[in-house]
Amino acid sequence: MTAAVIEGLTSYAERLRRRSLGGRARKVLRGLRLRFAFGLIEAAFHVAKAGGRPYQPVEIGGRRFANVRDTDERWHAVAKVLRDYGVKNVLDIGCAEGWFVRRAAADLNLFAIGIEATDVGIVGELARLHDRVPRAAVARAFVTPEAIRGLPQFDAVLCLSVLHHMIRGFGLGVAERFLQVLATRVSKILVFEIGTASESSWTEFLPEQSQGQEAFVRELLERAGFRNVRVITESAAYHREVQRLLFTAEPAKAANQETLKQLEVA
């Protein structure tokens, strides 16, 4: 064996070690940058949370913060519906901290989008980014009937405890128009919840539900272009005075296309 060959063989390991050392160094630097970025996200999360209890659960780094509304039972009921209907993507309107968005992506492997009009969405989104939950995102927007027209169809739409805010702010007519347009963006199933006139904080703003919550919601959704309205569970309202019912409803597709044309003309 010649001296040149021997030199090549003995120097190869050294060159390999040098490349391996460089690779390890780059990996360490990437890890430091990621940890620094996640540290910033976590710090921003605590600033945004500001010590208050969120409306929905928020989880970051394996720690779950206490929240106001009961969500576990509602999520189990929602998840069953999403599985039963073979849903692949979901839109959560008025998603608050985006807990159902996160669960739909993490538990069911769905593409999940949330829309939230207030700043509370940033808390859940920072937590999601920190934990690198894929296939999920929350956008900040106030969703009007006109804005809904610009959305694509989703297999499933969640509209949980949103409509009573719209009724208080704009009246029942605008809220019904909102539902009519929303019906054209639901491909398979709507999951719906609304505050009730039996809750002291909403009594003066909501129509009297003389025939009960279920009958009121059923009629409301059917007028908007939904069918097969049914109750799937119930949970305590925000102040725990009464139970809010959780509904599902299917879109009446043929009627919805005609409804959309009429709304566009109007």
Topology:
Blueprint: H1 3-49, E1 58-60, E2 63-65, H2 72-84, E3 89-93, H3 99-108, E4 111-116, H4 121-131, E5 136-140, H5 145-148, E6 154-160, H6 163-170, H7 172-183, E7 186-193, H8 213-224, E8 226-236, E9 243-251, H9 253-265
Parallel strand pairs: 3-4, 3-6, 4-5, 6-7
Antiparallel strand pairs: 1-2, 7-9, 8-9
Would you write up a description of this structure?
The chain is α/β, with parallel strands linked by helices. The chain has one domain: 3-Layer(aba) Sandwich (Rossmann fold), CATH 3.40.50.150. Helix content is 49%, strand content 21%. It has nine helices and nine strands. It has helices at 3-49, 72-84, 99-108, 121-131, 145-148, 163-170, 172-183, 213-224, 253-265; strands at residues 58-60, 63-65, 89-93, 111-116, 136-140, 154-160, 186-193, 226-236, 243-251. The strands form two sheets. The chain has a seven-stranded mixed beta sheet, sandwiched between helices. A two-stranded antiparallel sheet has the order 1-2. A hairpin with a 6-residue loop joins strand 8 and strand 9 (243-251). Helix 1 runs antiparallel to helix 4 (121-131), helix 7 (172-183) crosses helix 8 (213-224) and helix 7 crosses helix 9. The longest helix is centred in the N-terminal third of the chain and has 47 residues, at 3-49. It is globular, with a radius of gyration of 25 Å. The model has no long low-confidence stretch (mean pLDDT 83).
